[in-house]
Amino acid sequence: MTTRYVVFSHGKDSGPWGTKITALAETARGEGYEVESVDYRGVELPADRVTRLADVCKNLHGELVLVGSSMGG
């Protein structure tokens, strides 16, 4: 069975486990997904955020669903 992941990408003024992501993560887990949330705190440049997101995703083997909010979208 293929592992399925939801990867959350937060906005600039929030954190990896804010209220919105925490609530959505519970829903995703209830549907059988593993959950990851990328931590961009201290990362200012959009290109560096993309690099961090790609680094997280390349280590997840299975189906990915990306969920972004604000600048994380």
Strand order of the largest sheet: 2-1-3
Proportion of beta-strand residues: 15-25%
Number of helices: 2
Please tell me how large the radius of gyration is.
12 Å
Q: Let me know the average pLDDT.
A: 93
Spatial gap, N to C terminus: 29 Å
Low-confidence stretches: none
Write down how many β-strands occur, each being a DSSP E stretch of 2 or more residues. 3
Helix/strand structural class:
alpha/beta
Helical fraction: 25-40%
The secondary-structure element order is EHEHE
Using the alpha-carbon principal axes, give the shape. Answer: flat
Biggest sheet character: 3 strands, parallel
Describe it.
This protein is of the alpha/beta class. Helix content is 34%, strand content 23%. It has helices at 19-30, 46-58, and strands spanning 4-9, 34-38, 63-68. A three-stranded parallel beta sheet has the order 2-1-3, sandwiched between helices. The longest helix has 13 residues, at 46-58. The N and C termini lie far apart (29 Å).
